[in-house]
Amino acid sequence: MPTKIDMAKFAKFCKDMGFIFQSSEIYGGINGFWDYGPLGVELKKNIKDAWWLDMVRNPPPGPDGQEIRMVGLDCAIIMNPKVWVASGHVGTFADPTRKCPGCGKFTRADQLWPILAESDWMNSLIQEFDPGTGKYDSNRLMKWAKGKGQKLAPNLALVKNPEVTLSFLATRVNGQPDAPPNLQEFTRYLATEQLHATGLQEPCPACGAPLGEAKQVSLMFESHAGLEKTEDAKVYLRPETAQGIFANYRNVLDSTRLKLPFGIAQVGKAFRNEVTPRNFTFRSREFEQMEIEFFCHPDESMKWYQYWRDLRKKWYSTLGVKSENLVPREQGKEELAHYSIGTTDIEYMFPFSDEPQELEGVAHRGCFDLTAHAKHSGNDKLNYFDEERWNADSTGRSTNSFKEWLKTNPPATDVEKYQFTPHVIEPSAGADRFTLAVLCEAYTEDKVPDAKGNEETRVVMKFHPRLAPIKAAIFPLVNKDGMPEKAMSLYRSLKPHFNVFFDDKGAVGRRYRRQDEAGTPFCITIDGETLKDDTVTIRDRDTLKQERVPMSQVRATIERALTPGV
Ligand code: GAP
What we know:
Radius of gyration: 29 Å
Bound molecules: glycyl-adenosine-5'-phosphate
Helix content: 25-40%
Oligomer: single chain
Number of helices: 23
Strand order of the largest sheet: 3-9-10-16-13-12-11
Largest sheet: 7 strands, mixed
């Protein structure tokens, strides 16, 4: 991976292995919500822990080789709703959406064609004509309309009224042999009710009915705080973790006495009422973000923007994502969010798509948020006072008190030298999106010799050891001669340090296969030799090589593989 794969098959593998389950599956599931199983929860936790360690506790030096100061926060999911007015979310956080008059479902207007391309009816219909030439066979389309179409797209014009649609096609498509329509045009013809329609209509991906006009629909999840369900009690589930950081900017500054530049980080849930959740967990309605707001002097902001773009891309590579699958893409001016001066998306070549898709956005937010919160909250302290510079520039000044000096009405440009609103660079990553990317990247099918030396296909999850849900599995070769006891004792000695797994069931080859599918980098076997000289074999998941090492060195061997490296 990631060459293109059947996501339904992949989702089944993830379910069977205990990585990801559909939420509330026993009740038929709920669209856009997912649960992590026993292996998935370890994988996602390792991702969040690696991010926290590498970005917050131990970030690499800054662009000039300096130490970077980072601190963390853990804010409430529900905040004063005024936060979301100030941030612009209440006013503008919406997607263009089209409602289907036939089945009532909503589709994102700006993603209609990719969603249609994935729909069951489109995939079935596509077999019936050649979109390259636009040629079609009316008999085949008629047969489809009366058969599969009835079930898959009951409201498509072609299905409801095949004779009219086919004669319409004859005038519009075969009538213009020199200009064969592309797939999108052809699909519009199939959905258009009237023979002489002037405007062609786009069909609903669920039922085929012509879709209504696009309208902006808010993505904010609403609830009420307290027992009264009134407008005054209305609150929102946060759509991003960032605003908790901005709202606490002054608290962090006052409690830590941090000096610019510095970053505040947060990992936590975010909620968006996505119109069309899709592509497994890629676009969910509940997901987790790993966000940094990095505050710096405006004059240094471009340097830090560059620094975070490079560092964040590198971070994914150090955790095993191949560079060729990572594509940084500078957003066009028309794509930028309302707060952004510039944004680079770090995109990943997910196997469900022909185009790379966003894994993380690194945005230059300028001073948008602090300025907006200062204005809406009336708090005039959401700025930064550069005390060091103020003290350094003391010669020739009548007073050492900044407040007193302000009373002398100095020019604004002089004041801004000492007191200004910091600019913010925001690397904003999705924990669930990266978990999905890691699963896709790790999934490998290869051929290995079985116990008798015959080739067999194995599925192996080639996780980076730091991310692997289980770090090592410990096997007694056979369940006798003191091997299980020895294996159990090794297992117990490793358990406080790593997530390890003890397995004494079945043939050892089968035990290896199970661990390959779980992505366990090391399998440690206690055998006859162990009883004589206290050595064990360590099998490497990827090379299949077995190394014999003293039992006392097992922990150090695993630790070496888990050493961070950004
Ligand atoms: N604070 C900026 C912000 O929230 P964003 O690009 O909307 O920016 C940042 O989101 C990251 O959050 C995305 O790059 C993605 O990894 C993740 N994300 C956003 N919406 C998501 C969704 N519906 N499902 C899963 N992850 C999502």
